[in-house]
Amino acid sequence: MTSNTQDSFSKNAAEALVPNLSGPSLGALMRRPEAGSLIGLIAVLAFFSAFGGANFLSVEGAASCLNVAAELGIIALPVGLLMIAGHLDLSVGSVLAAASMTIAIVSGHYHAPMIVAILAALCLGLVVGFVNGFLVIRTNVPSFIVTLATLSAVAGLTLGFSVILTASTSVALTSGPVAKALLGHFVAEKFEVALFWWVILIAIVGFILNFSPYGNWILALGGDSVSARNAGIPTDRLTIALFMASGLCAAFVGVSQAILYNSAQVAAGQSFIFNSIIAVVIGGVLLTGGYGSVVGIVLGTLTFSVINQGIYYTGFNPNWASLIVGVLLLLAVLMNNTFRRMALAYAPRTKGMARS
Amino acid sequence: MTAPMLKLTGISKSFAPIDVLHDISLEVFPGEVLCLLGDNGAGKSTLIKILSGVHKPTFGTMEMNGKVVVFDSPRDARERGIATVHQFGGTFPLMSIGRSFFVGAEPTKRWGPVFVFDRKRANEIAITEMRQLGITRIDDGNRLVGGLSGGERQALAIARAVYFGASVLILDEPTAALGVKEAAHVIRIVLQARQKGLAVIFITHSVVHALTVGDHFAILIRGSKAADFRKGEKSREEIADLMAGGEHMADLEAEIEGYKVTHGHQS
């Protein structure tokens, strides 16, 4: 660029930035993808505080919500990234169970060192993720179908091998103090250590989506995969990497559950399939891709967990929790659609009035 | 006249049994607008895809500034300075202006050991480049592309191409989806790009738009170049006839008649 351009550039840039200096406002917040999920979380917190009272607001109440949120959140974050990139991953449920059985069989049944068992379980997650991604890019079959198939296939393999190898569908696991301390114990006897892993993962995924160039690639891939490829983004590699991330995270939760509960079951993890999608959608991620935020996914996860656990602190029958989740999901999607439209329609009429 | 920026010689493309393009030769000069005209299915989009690196030609060669080039990917073509802008311009409606401006070529800054996307700089550059093309309504790079009008999106896409140093700008029906005023604005932007010395390939259905911007015209009919002429060599009516198929249409009809007679088919 010429120096002339540079001059006008900095002048114009200064003008362009003036409205941004007025700081965050309500209007600006409403145009963010997570606006709906923030309102949803405040609403359910208010609801359960009113009906759950002191017990819900106690440390125990918070811990029970956060423990559920942590396990769900570790899976919801990579699933959310995938959804922003325009894909779904239903196979997480089976990967969780398969990883959990792998660590229990390798370490609990065959008495191999714990580190080998953990690596085997995590590798299994990566392999399933790779297969998902590879099939999606090679066949162009929608990821919903591909991962539905691997969900079923991995569940079948897990059950089949567990019965062949151990003649059982549930295997006990004793883990050493290091594994326990890192992956499966309750901090202060209340908070699962997974909570800390969730916080680390939020930081990593938040960095990827908001600050690294890869975040831009993910948004572009979900917005329009053909244009993204034409813009020079390695869309195939990116898709495979995202599926591998969700496989790895699902396996990680499987591993930490097995270590926490000292056993693994073949049928574990199925609730995570749709719960992760619910958390992500409540969080304002567009199901068809191209739009969403990490803050939204975290808020959606918390909202889901508060409903899931908060109901036990109220006088209501816990069976109603699913009803609340269903209604909230619908409301959240409608609200998110409205906010997205507002974000699209947002056009300042005159300069200086931009952020009223 | 200077040397052609881009020269196609005998480009043919067939997908398995079907010949889509047949022996196309074209020259595009810097600071000139080549209007590529033709009916639907004439092979315009295949030709664009060859130029932008999506497909490789079955036969024929492409030269840029006198050197033979082969594009292995769209990225390859872009790095050589060929930028393609599609009908709807920005194709990421839910991305911010700054982000979509730099898709695939994000500016980064250092944060300790890692490189991060420099959103502030991306927004500033995107806004400034759009201003240079006369879009002054937009002053916030965080706005979503979907909130822009059709003409503004075209401007954004053209600004992007110019910024990234494109020497050949391919515009695929940039005015087709626009109103009269917006189309006029886009045409002005095209003329601005031409003035900067870019070689512009302008694909359109509109004879009026073509005559306004074109220095040089090529008409494709059923995968072949049916006409190649410079501004002022043909009247508007002749061009319209050619675009509708012209004399080749008559040949085709005769062919169909002949086919019916020899094969006894009902069509």
Which features does this protein show?
heterodimer; A: 356 residues; two-stranded antiparallel ribbon; 73% helix; globular; B: 267 residues; alpha/beta; Rossmann fold; 6-stranded mixed β-sheet; 4-stranded antiparallel β-sheet; 9 helices; 36% helix
Structural summary, described in words:
The complex is a heterodimer of chains A (356) and B (267). Chain A is mostly helical and 356 residues long. Chain A has a single domain, classed as ABC transporter involved in vitamin B12 uptake, BtuC, CATH 1.10.3470. In chain A, 73% of the residues lie in helices and 3% in strands. Chain A has 15 helices and four strands. Chain B has 267 residues and is an alpha/beta fold. Chain B has one domain (6-263): Rossmann fold. Chain B contains nine helices and twelve strands. In chain B, the strands form three sheets. In chain B, strands 6-9-10-3-11-12 form a six-stranded mixed beta sheet, with helices on both faces. In chain B, strands 2-1-4-5 form a four-stranded antiparallel beta sheet, with helices on one face. In chain B, strands 7-8 form a two-stranded antiparallel ribbon. In chain B, α4 packs across α5 (150-163) and α5 (150-163) runs parallel beside α6 (180-195). The mean pLDDT of chain B is 83. The A-B interface holds A 5, 8-9, 12-13, 15-20, 207, 210-213, 215-217, 219-220, 223-224, 227-233, 286, 290-291, 340, 343-348, 351, 354 and B 52, 54, 73-75, 78, 84, 86, 91-95, 99-100, 102-106, 108, 111, 114-117, 120, 123-125, 127-128, 131-132, 137, 139-144, 146-147.
